[in-house]
Specification:
Shape: elongated
Structural class: mainly beta
Distance between the termini: 87 Å
Number of strands: 9
Order of helices and strands: HEEEEEEEEEH
Strand content: 35-45%
Length: about 190
C-alpha cells in the first residue's frame, strides 16, 4: 500500500514496534485526554502530568552537569593543547598546562606543568613546576621543581627544592634559593 506503514505482529496477533503498546490508553476511554503540546515540543518535554496512573513528578531532561568544584585551580587553568603555538604575556592563572608550544613571559601562576612534547620558551616565575617536556629560558621556582625522565630544562634556573628523575636533564646557570627564591623573583620582576 502506498503511503501507509506495514505493521508487524507476533503469533498472538498483538501489534509490535509500530503499533500501540498493550497498556496504552484507548481513545474510547472517557478518562483519556491527549496532552497539549507545542508543535515542536516532544512528548517527554511536556509539563502536564500523564494520565496513565503515573503519579511521580514530571522528569525534565538536562544535559550532563559537572559537579561544582571547590578546587580553584580548575577554575583558572590555562591549557595550551597539542599542536597549538602561543606567544605573548600571561599575567595571571592558577595552573598552566603546556602540551603544545609557548613562547611567553609568565607571572603570577603558582603551578606550571609542561607535558611530554610540550615546549616552553621564555620566562616563568612559579611556586611549582613539573616538566615532562622542555623548558628554555629563565625559570624561577620558589618551592619545588620536578624534572621527569623525559624533561629537559635549560637556561637560568632558581629553585627552592629540585627533583630530577633518571633520564631528566638540566643545564645552565643553576641557583638554589630555598625560600628566598621569592625575594629573587621580586627583584627580577622589578628590574
Amino acid at each position: 500500500m502506498f503511503g501507509s506503514q506495514s505493521r508487524l505482529s507476533d503469533r498472538s496477533g498483538a501489534l509490535l514496534p509500530n503499533g500501540p503498546a498493550k497498556d496504552a490508553p484507548k481513545i474510547a476511554d472517557p478518562a483519556y485526554k491527549p496532552l497539549p503540546l507545542k508543535p515542536t515540543e516532544p512528548v517527554w518535554k511536556s509539563t502536564e502530568p500523564s494520565l496513565t496512573g503515573d503519579t511521580s513528578p514530571p522528569h525534565y531532561e538536562t544535559g550532563p552537569q559537572r559537579a561544582p568544584s571547590t578546587d580553584e585551580a580548575d577554575l583558572r587553568t590555562l591549557i595550551i593543547g597539542p599542536g597549538v603555538s602561543v606567544s605573548g604575556e600571561i599575567t595571571s592563572c592558577n595552573r598552566l598546562i603546556v602540551q603544545g608550544k609557548i613562547e611567553a613571559k609568565l607571572a603570577d601562576c603558582p603551578n606550571v606543568i609542561i607535558k611530554e612534547g610540550g615546549v616552553f620558551k621564555g620566562e616563568s616565575s612559579t611556586e611549582e613546576a613539573d616538566v615532562h617536556g622542555s623548558f628554555e629560558g629563565n625559570l624561577i621556582v620558589s618551592k619545588r621543581l620536578l624534572i621527569r625522565a623525559t624533561g629537559r630544562v635549560s637556561g637560568t634556573i632558581a629553585y627552592g627544592e629540585i627533583e630530577i628523575e633518571r633520564g631528566g636533564k638540566i643545564s645552565g646557570d643553576l641557583k638554589h634559593e630555598g625560600e628566598s627564591a621569592v625575594s629573587y623573583l621580586k627583584q627580577a620582576q622589578v628590574g
